[in-house]
Amino acid sequence: MPRVLLVDDDRKLLSLLERGFRFEGFEVQTATLGVHSVELAQSERPDLVVLDIGMPDLNGFDVCRQLRARLDVPVIMLTARDDVEDKVRALDLGADDYVSKPFAFDELIARVRAVLRRRTGDATERLAFADLVCDLSTREVTRGNRTVALTPREFELLVYFLRHPRQVLTRDAILEAVWGYELAGDTKVVDVYVGYLRQKLDSPQLIQTVRGVGYALKG
Q1: β-strand pairing of 27-31 with 75-79
Q2: In this predicted model, what pLDDT tens digit does every residue of 194-212 receive, in sequence order?
Q3: How would CATH label the architecture of 3-120?
Q4: Is the peptide bond prior to 74 cis by the omega test (within 30 degrees of 0)?
Q5: Nearest-angstrom CA–CA distance, 173 and 193
Q6: Domain 126-217 CATH assignment equals 1.10.10.10
Q7: Statement: residue 38 has pLDDT above 60
Q8: Helices (H), the chain
Q9: Domain locations in the chain as residue ranges
Q10: Residue 190 in contact with residue 207, Cβ under 8 Å?
Q11: What local confidence, expressed as pLDDT, does residue 120 receive?
């Protein structure tokens, strides 16, 4: 199970990110202060750090500099500013990637997985369930001997189900993990996209409805 350290002084956002990463199968540590984040990184040795630039004590640039001096850990930086100079500075300090707020959670999780794959040298990752195979590096989905064409959002939804096989997933959890902040509270979109997936996978029973709760990939 990959371990991630989330660092942000926005406690509400931090809580949402923590839940999202746990749903995605990560072990999570959190920090709201820069100094504490450096201490946690040294003691817990996470596989990756997601770091906000605008911290109240040490800013994210200083934290990144200290992490780089003490540890070989990948860092993805978050900021409310979409400023080229900030991006260049972050990358020059050794950050592996940079995400501007507001962002969709599925974009952040995709970037995290991409950085981890680069670090481990594993450029190919496949998820499978029954005769359904999803190649994350090529974004190709096959069912038996046929290719299934999916939109980017349908693909992310399928990946979420494949990462949690046979688990009952609530509509709210799916919405948060796949759509992030874009459609907060509008769980009807989950039902619509599950319908799209069922049609394209040609198997209404593969993703089963759990009445009053959500869905489960069971087949």
Answers
A1: unpaired
A2: 999 999 998 888 999 999 9
A3: 3-Layer(aba) Sandwich (3.40)
A4: no
A5: 14
A6: yes
A7: yes
A8: 11-23, 34-44, 60-70, 84-92, 105-120, 152-163, 171-179, 188-201
A9: 3-120, 126-217
A10: no
A11: 66
